[in-house]
């Protein structure tokens, strides 16, 4: 009986932690890199449903050794890519990480990524919350 | 009266002479660099050493400059061009060259380039130009590139122009294909070029 009670208490708490993550993540995709390349980019949508600004500060996953936040800018046909420390998602708004803008750079991919398969990715925010999502392998370069 | 050539003035004269000779020398060497004909610069490709001088003959030549650690713009361009080449009929496609030149010859070996482009259309010819010649080569075609050190895992990135250079069979630089162009626009441009130059 005690155990069942404990189980339910745990359930309630785990649901609560899940609910406190104020960022909704949609359409997460990773472009399968061309042969020989262990670098790729992840694109997704981040929706901030809370009443305060939240920033994405770190990304982790087991299919690659390193994940970084980058931004790409195009000025007079010149492409510039820079690493950024965080990506701000303003309160009650949404930001899209997409080709030509903010994206998650993936280095040293250790797993052979496959089309339409899903890979775990953990996003960590500056309010100490984190969320693990599934990223879909897409052939963006065919 | 003091002599016009004191020890001091002689020293300054020597210094000025040295400075002038350095300037003349650097100007001459720059002139020499500028005199390298970009059409004769060696393009190291899987087909051996090639020169634009030969490649441009009887063809419209497209040149795209990028690097393999580029996660977005470069593979997107190659993928867009792949789909263009799939849409063109063989007789038109035969009149087009596409060369993919690395802006990162320090990291991109020919072997890596070859492996990379195998994912795209066989029309795409990978080429490596030595770092020494790369500046003259890109400068002639209006392509800028800057190696930028990053704290990132990448070590450095390369900011670069993203347009595809278009050359006529008589070595004229034509209107480039911009990264922002849509597929129908690029296809129309290619069709027009083949029509203008080869009546196809």
Written account of the structure:
The complex is a heterodimer of chains A (142) and B (200). Chain A has 142 residues and is mainly β. Chain A has one helix spanning 2-20, and strands at residues 23-31, 40-48, 54-60, 64-75, 78-83, 87-89, 94-97, 102-109, 118-125, 130-138. Chain A is globular. Chain B has helices spanning 7-34, 52-55, 73-87, 90-93, 110-117, 131-140, 183-198, and strands at residues 43-45, 48-50, 60-66, 96-102, 124-127, 145-149, 156-161, 164-167, 173-177. In chain B, the strands form 3 sheets. Chain B has a 5-stranded mixed β-sheet. Chains A and B meet through strand 4, strand 5 and strand 8 of A and helix 3, helix 5 and strand 7 of B.
Residues in helices of chain A, as a percent range: 10-25%
Q: In oligomeric terms, what are we looking at?
A: heterodimer
Quick one: which chains have the greatest interface?
A-B, 30 and 33 residues
Taking the alpha carbons of the first and last residues of chain A, their distance comes to 57 Å
Low-pLDDT ranges of chain A? 15-19
Number of strands of chain A: 10
User: Which regions of chain B have little confidence, pLDDT < 50, spanning 5+ residues?
Assistant: none
- Return the structural class of chain B: alpha/beta
Radius of gyration of chain A: 17 Å
* Strands ordered across the widest β-sheet of chain B: 5-4-3-8-9
SSE pattern of chain A: HEEEEEEEEEE
Shape of chain B: elongated
What's the tally of helices of chain A?
1
What's the mean pLDDT score of chain B?
91
Tell me the number of strands of chain B. 9
Mind telling me the C-alpha Rg of chain B? 23 Å
Let me know the largest β-sheet of chain A: 10 strands, mixed
Spatial separation of the terminal alpha carbons of chain B = 86 Å
Q: Helix-strand pattern of chain B, N to C?
A: HEEHEHHEHEHEEEEH
The biggest sheet of chain B amounts to: 5 strands, mixed
């Amino acid at each position: 009986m005690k155990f069942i009670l404990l189980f339910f208490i745990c359930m309630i708490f785990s649901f609560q932690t899940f609910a406190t993550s104020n960022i909704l993540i949609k359409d997460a995709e990773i472009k399968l890199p061309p042969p020989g390349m262990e670098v790729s980019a992840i694109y997704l949508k981040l929706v901030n449903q809370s009443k305060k600004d939240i920033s994405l500060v770190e990304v982790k996953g087991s299919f690659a050794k390193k994940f970084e936040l980058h931004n790409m800018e195009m000025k007079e046909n010149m492409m510039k890519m820079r690493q950024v420390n965080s990506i701000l998602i303003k309160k009650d708004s949404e930001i899209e990480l997409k080709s030509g803008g903010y994206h998650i750079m993936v280095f040293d991919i250790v797993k052979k990524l496959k089309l339409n398969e899903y890979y775990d990715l953990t996003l960590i925010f500056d309010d100490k919350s984190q969320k693990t999502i599934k990223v879909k392998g897409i052939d963006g370069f065919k | 009266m003091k002599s016009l050539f004191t020890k001091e003035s002689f020293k300054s004269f020597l210094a000025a002479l040295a400075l002038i000779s350095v300037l003349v020398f650097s100007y001459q060497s720059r002139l020499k660099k500028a005199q390298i004909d970009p059409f004769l610069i060696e393009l190291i490709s899987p087909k051996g050493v090639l020169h634009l001088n030969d490649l441009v003959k009887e063809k419209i030549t497209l040149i795209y400059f990028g690097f393999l650690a580029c996660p977005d713009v470069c593979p997107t361009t190659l993928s867009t061009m792949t789909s263009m080449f799939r849409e063109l009929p063989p007789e038109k496609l035969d009149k087009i060259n596409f060369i993919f030149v690395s802006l990162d010859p320090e990291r991109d070996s020919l072997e890596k380039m070859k492996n990379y482009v195998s994912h795209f259309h066989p029309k795409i010819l990978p080429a490596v130009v030595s770092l020494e010649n790369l500046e003259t080569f890109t400068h002639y075609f209006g392509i800028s590139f800057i190696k930028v050190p990053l704290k990132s895992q990448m070590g450095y990135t390369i900011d670069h122009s993203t347009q595809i250079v278009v050359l006529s069979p008589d070595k004229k630089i034509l209107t480039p294909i911009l990264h922002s162009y849509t597929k129908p626009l690029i296809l129309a441009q290619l069709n027009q070029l083949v029509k203008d130059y080869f009546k196809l």
